[in-house]
Amino acid sequence: MNVEDIVQQKKLAIDRELESVLSRDDSLLFQAMRYAVLSGGKRFRPLLMLAVGECFGFNMSRLLPVACAVELIHNYSLVHDDLPVMDDDDFRRNKPTCHKAYGEDIALLAGDGLLTLAFEILGKTPLDDEQSDMRGEVIAQVSQDAGAEGMVGGQVLDLTLSSETIAPEEYYTLISKKTGALIMTSVRVGAMIAKASSEDMKAIIEYGRYVGLAFQTRDDILDADQDNSDRAQVRPNSVALFGLEEAKRKLAEYVNLALAALDKIPYQSEELRYLAKKLLNVKKGKQNESNS
Ligand code: IPE
Ligand code: IPE
Ligand code: MG
Asked: What is the per-residue pLDDT across 132-145, written as a single tens digit (0 to 9) for each?
C-alpha cells in the first residue's frame, strides 16, 4: 500500500471512532455534537498523532482514542469560532455552521460537550500498563495546549490584535497558539505515549512547530481568495501582513524546515513527510477539501 492509501485508511478508522464515541444517545445535544464533528474535516491532527506513533513503532489502536479526543477539542474550537460573537460564519465544511443548524445556545453547549467529552476519553483510555502516571502527563499537556496558554489564548490574540498594527513576532505567537498548539499537542502527545527519546522528542517538536506555522499560513492563503468580510480584512493573517507571494514563500520554507527536522529522526517517517508536503497544495479551494 502506498502512503496515501495508508493515510486514507487511518482517516476512515478515525471517522469510525468519532462516530462511535458520539453515538451514545440521540438527545438534541448529541445530535448537534455529531453534526459539528461528522460533517467532514481533514482529521489532520489525529492523523498527525497516529503518524508520530507509527514513526516510533507504536501501534495505532491504543493511540486512536487519544487522537480522537484532540479532534473533538479541535471541533469544539471551530463551533465556538464560528459563533456570531466570534467570527460570525454561516458555513463550515460546505454546510451551515452548528449555530445556524441548531441555534446559538445549543451550539455553544455542543462545543462545551465536545470539550468535556474529550477529557472524559483521555481520563478513561488505558495508555500504559506499567506507568499509569502517563495519563496524568498527557492530560496536563493537552490541557495546557488547548487552554489559556495555547489555543484559547491564541483565539484571544486573534480577536484583539489587528493586521494593521501587529508586529511579525506577535503574529507568530498568535498562530503558534491559535493553530499551532493543537497541532503541537498531537505531535508531542503521540511521541510521549510512544516513549520517544529526548533527542527524538526535540526533533519531532521542531517538526510540529513548523507544521503548525505552515498549516495556518496555508489556511490564510486559501482564505485570501474567498473571505472578503470586514473582519477578514482587519484580522491578522499572513497574506495581509506579508502579501500573497511572500506568504507562499514562507509556507514552502516552513514545510522544508519541518521535513529537515525529520531528517534528525533515525526512523521511517514517510507518513509525517506526506502530511507536511500536503500543506504545499494551495490550488484546491477550501470548500473542496473538507473531506480530503
Ligand atoms: C480550520 O482547521 C481552522 C484552523 C485552525 C486553521 P482545519 O483546516 O483542520 O479544519 P477541518 O477540521 O479540516 O475542517
Ligand atoms: C480558527 O481560525 C482557529 C480555531 C478555531 C482555534 P480561523 O478563524 O482562522 O479559521 P477558519 O477560517 O474559521 O477555519
Ligand atoms: Mg474562523
From this structure: 678 899 999 999 99
Q: What is the pLDDT of residues 140-199, one digit of tens each?
A: 999 999 999 999 999 999 999 988 889 989 999 999 999 999 999 999 999 999 999 999
Q: How many angstroms is it from 82 CA to the middle of ligand 2?
A: 8
Q: Rounded CA gap, 89 and 77, in Å?
A: 13
**Mutate which of 44, 70, 73, 87 to test ligand 2's pocket (most atoms within 8 Å of Cβ)?**
87
Phi and psi for 92 in degrees, rounded to 5? -145, 140
Residue 44 CA: nearest ligand 1 atom is: 9
Please work out whether the CB of residue 185 comes within 6 Å of at least one atom of ligand 2. no
Length in residues, the chain: 292
Instruction: Give the model's pLDDT for residue 224.
Output: 85
